[in-house]
Each structure stands twice: as structure tokens, then as C-alpha cells.
Predict the structure of Alginate export family protein.
Amino acid sequence: MTSQTLYVVAITGALLTQGVLADADGTLPPLAKLRFDEDYSDMRNQPAATGWPERVKYIPFGKSGPSYVTLGGEIRQRYEYTNNPTFGQSPQDAHGVWFQRYSILADVHWSPRFRLFAQLNSALETGRAEGPSPVDENELAWQNLFLDIGFASADARVLTLRPGRQEIVLGSGRLVDVREGPNVRRTFDGVRGFYLCDQFRLDLLATRPRTDEPGVFDDETSDRYALWGAYATKARPLDTAGNLDLYYLGYEDKNALYVQGSGREHRHSIGLRYWGEQNDWSWNWETLYQFGHFARDDIHAWTLATETAYRWQQHPWKPQLRFSVNIASGDKNPDDGTLGTFNPLFPRGNYFSEAAVLGPRNFYNFHTFVNILPTADWSLTADLNFFWRLQTEDGLYSPSGQIIRAPMGSDSHFATTALSLTAEYTFFRGLVFTAIYTFGNPEAFFRDTGPADDLSFTELTLQYRF
């Protein structure tokens, strides 16, 4: 047994032992995808906590007033093995890859108007045949470091200004997400403001992503990419069920690359999303149109994404059936002066599966899921994805926008079929074990244009957040 394996076993044992004390009565709010969204202010009216992790969630300071500090963190250990990466196109890792991610955070509430949030992250990688990619390793960096300045009125209207480094998720993360799947999460430098009023929220942002460098405190603000815009959400529009999002996002890439060529990209996105749940149904439907300029060409692109689910709440194991049908434009002709390839901007890395091979450009797919809950702590999911190219004059792209396979004269649309199995078990609040297996079968387009081996992907993750 290697020293690294012993280290992981020791961490696991310590966490399981600690779990006996971990929020046994469920008094703490749920852990959030964005840790700064967690609110522990209600603990000021409760007796001083003595157990773990309650005692670090509300630490008052000062003689009076609502000033307090919240501490938190994360330990994530992940093993991945991919057989025939990118269907045999990418180098083969000999024994798989081990990823480690650690973070520690402090949320300082000086007053109802002023707040400082700081989070340090360390992401490490071992075993990658090509060496770590930018999303694999970042030894030490500020993941979040921002100040909230709040302005509240008597009628419950709140305006907050947030300058600094910050993670951003807009909507369901189809266009802007923290990229939780990879080892290094995405974050931005800039300014964000949001206005809250009853059932309405408006976000304004002007940001640039952080460069992901592998060393210690060597990240900078990107001068290649920029993101700005406005995102509004209205609950129960026209007194109907669900929520409605309306948004505009501006995007710049000084060195964009498509099958059509390379050049400066200046793109605008106008979108609409309708989402929510009622009784046993849930839905998430979104469409948007993009326009702008790429090099000397115009941009005209679009997408439509739908996800509809039904869960039998009254049946044993509460089975859920979910259907997702999606389409995104591609480029019809690289020489016609118009770029038709949709750009998902800053999406999650695991858009279609944890294998994270394909990105949402120039495609249409049908994706179906079956989920069961044998116990309150255990979730099992099987999903099947059929994936096609939309335009035969355009290629396929990775989640980060790199060209995976150029068209090479192939007139085939069918690209791949993928089956994934996922098991997730929650030991206690914050400690989750996940096992994933994905099998990908290359279809006609991959067979026409290069390596086309069956892909298999295995992932084992143990994650503890407090």
C-alpha cells in the first residue's frame, strides 16, 4: 500500500469518526454549491454550539450587534481512469489519475452592510500522461476573495455590491458555472451587483475569468476573456407555477478558434429560461440567440435546451424519469462570412457526463435518466445519451471549446452513444461518496474521421465539506 493510499485511508477514518458528532439533529442549513450562499445567522438566537461542525459556523465577535464569523472547508479525493481517452485520440494514462482538492474559508460578517468572504483552494494531480492540464492542478490560489457592501430599505428591498474574486453561477449553469467536475473550479475577477425585491432578483456583472496557473499564488486576471451582462429572475410570473429568467450576456475572446478559423470574438447572448416544479413534475427549459462578430465575419447562433422530469413520490424508492432534448447551432459553411457555431461561454465541464469529452456546440442529443432513492442517503442513476452533429461542415468541440474532431469531409451526423451509471451515498452532512462508470461507443462520424475506440470511464470520489 502506497503512502498516498495510507493518507487517504487515514483521512477517511478520521472523517467517519468525526461524523458521529456531525450535525446529528440536522440543525444546520444545507451545504451550497457556492459556499458563500450559506447563511448561519439564525444561530445567533440559539444556545452556543459545542459539537462539530456547529461550533465553527457561528463565532460571534464584538460586544454587541450581529457580527460573527463562519469557518468552513473541503477535502476532496478523486480517482479517475479513462480507457481510450477521446475515443483513442488522446494519450492513455497508465494507471489512472488521482486528484486532491482542499479548501478553507472564512465568512466575516462585520455588520448587516459589510461582509468579507475569503476562500483558499489547493488542487493537486498525480498520474496524468500529458501532465496536469489547467483544470487539473493549481497548488494554491484564492478561489474567492470579495467584499459585500449592502444597502437595505425598510420594505425588504436589498441592493448589494460585490467587488473582488468570486465564483459565479447563472441559472442552471448552462452558460456560466463554477465547473465543479474538474479539479480546479472556475472563478472570476470583477464586480457584481444584485438587487432583491420580493420575488424578483436582478444581477449585473462585469468580470474576467481567473487564469488557472499551476503554482502558488501565480494566477492573474485574464486579459483574453471577458464576461459582462444582466440576469433577471421572476418567481411565479403572471401568477403561474415556476420561475422565469431573462438575461443578456456579453462575451469576448481575443483568440477564439473554430473550424472556420481563428480570430477575435465579440458575442452577445439574449436568453429566456422557464424552470420550476409543481407536484411531482419538474422542468428546466431554456433558449437563446447569439449575435456579434468573429474576425471579419458576423455571428448568428442559437440553442434550445429542455429537461422535464417526473418523480413518483408515493412509491418505494421514489423513482424519477427525466428526459433532456437539446440542440445547438453549428456552422453551415466556413466560407460564407457568417459563424453559426453556438458558444456556451463558461459552462460546466461535465455537461453531458462526468467523462467530459463533448461540449455543447454544433449538436443535437436525446438524453434520458432513471433515478431511484433506496434510502434517504443513497441515490442511484442510470442515463443514456445519443449525440449527433448538427451541421456536417462543422466539427465537434470539447467543453472548453477546443476542436476535438474537424469535419474532414464526413457527411455523418451520429457521433456517439454513452451509458452512465452513478451511485451516490451520503454518510452524514458533508461526507459523500460517489462512484461513476461511463461507457462511450463511437458512432459513424468518429469512425469516419480518425481513432474510434470504445471509451470507458471510472470515477471514485470521496468529498467532505464542513
Notes: The longest strand covers residues 261-278.
